[in-house]
User: Which sequence fits this backbone?
């Protein structure tokens, strides 16, 4: 039996971009995906991180989704399950064997984790208690039960921060989206563990009691493609259509294809002075010449199957749109590579975009929309991840 060692570290930004390196040639600036040749796994290198979830993005915007649940009565909760905005962390869970566990320094075992998380609600508080799970999924020992409780709280904390919102009461019409996020997080974690031998770091916020209850309902469900847990990557908003994985990570994955994503156009603009843009482009090794009106050419850009810009001429040289977003301007400024217009007025360049994030897999804002329209979590997951089974 395996045990988990749980570390609480300083909070790192939420889930949505993978780790890559930049390769530059004479005529193009493009991302080189992490090689999967070492283990022949096309999913290797697809790592979530560095971008906020939709709840973090929307938390400062007044609206029906992340307004603190004011259109619904708060669920009862004890002092230790009330949300605390100051309690957030990245939770890393490497696998540790029984023999290794006994050799760990004091304070690094599971008890250190338990002291930092709220207690699980009792069966009387939960609308879906552990006793409702299939007999085959019931823990066989108190130790395994404690481990399940720890992972349940991690998943609930990730769902809270990613899609419910810190200090936000879950809203009934979005329950199915929250459950879809829980299954996506769990499946992603299991795929990561299979690939790297440990669980990944997850963005975390103290979960509301209702969030824990919703996650408990789907805790024993994983999305599979064939016999392998699927790498269920996700992002904040797709701008109406997701894109296939090869445009972001260089590997074509059967269940990460472009699909329509309703309810999530998420238009935004980013403006920067021509002087600052020149400095940033130059610092990235891109030669800038001529007037700002001539620097970018959407007319000659290439596009992905989801309508995202793949490459765009910058002063005559084709540049990866991901390079512009992630290395030149920054992901919090240029929110998406689904660039719909570039305009110049005086000394100001303005980029118009749709969506937020890499655009592969499940759109969190789209999931919320489908849930509000009456679709259940299984519909949402099988819509965004084609060909998976949930079991």
Assistant:
């Amino acid at each position: 039996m395996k045990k988990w060692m749980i570390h609480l570290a300083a909070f790192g930004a939420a889930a949505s971009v993978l780790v890559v390196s930049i390769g530059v040639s004479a005529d193009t600036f493009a991302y080189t995906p992490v090689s999967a040749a070492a283990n022949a796994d096309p999913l290797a290198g697809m790592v979530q991180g560095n971008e906020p979830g939709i709840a973090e993005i929307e938390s400062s915007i007044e609206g029906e989704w992340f307004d603190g649940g004011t259109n619904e009565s708060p669920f009862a909760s004890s002092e230790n399950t009330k949300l605390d905005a100051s309690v957030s962390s990245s939770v890393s869970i490497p696998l540790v064997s029984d023999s290794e566990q006994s050799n760990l320094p004091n304070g690094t075992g599971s008890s250190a984790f338990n002291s930092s998380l709220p207690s699980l609600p009792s069966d009387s508080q939960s609308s879906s208690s552990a006793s409702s799970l299939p007999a085959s999924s019931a823990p066989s020992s108190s130790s395994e039960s404690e481990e399940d409780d720890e992972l349940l709280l991690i998943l609930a904390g990730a769902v809270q921060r990613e899609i419910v919102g810190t200090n936000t009461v879950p809203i009934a019409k979005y329950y199915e989206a929250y459950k879809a996020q829980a299954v996506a997080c769990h499946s992603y974690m299991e795929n990561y563990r299979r690939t790297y031998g440990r669980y990944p770091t997850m963005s975390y916020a103290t979960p509301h009691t209702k969030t824990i209850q919703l996650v408990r309902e789907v805790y024993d469900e994983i999305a599979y493609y064939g016999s392998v847990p699927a790498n269920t990557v996700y992002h904040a908003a797709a701008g109406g259509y997701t894109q296939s994985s090869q445009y972001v990570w260089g590997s074509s994955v059967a269940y990460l294809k472009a699909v329509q994503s309703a309810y999530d156009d998420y238009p935004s603009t980013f403006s920067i002075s021509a002087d600052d843009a020149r400095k940033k482009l130059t610092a990235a090794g891109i030669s800038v010449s001529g007037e700002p009106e001539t620097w970018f050419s959407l007319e000659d850009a290439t596009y992905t199957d989801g309508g995202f810009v793949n490459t765009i001429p910058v002063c005559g040289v084709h540049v990866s749109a991901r390079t512009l977003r992630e290395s030149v301007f920054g992901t919090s400024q240029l929110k998406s590579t689904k660039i719909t217009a570039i305009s110049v007025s005086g000394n100001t360049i303005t980029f118009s975009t749709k969506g937020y994030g890499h655009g592969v897999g499940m759109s969190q804002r789209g999931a919320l929309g489908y849930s509000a329209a009456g679709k259940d979590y299984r519909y949402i997951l099988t819509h965004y991840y084609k060909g998976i089974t949930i079991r």
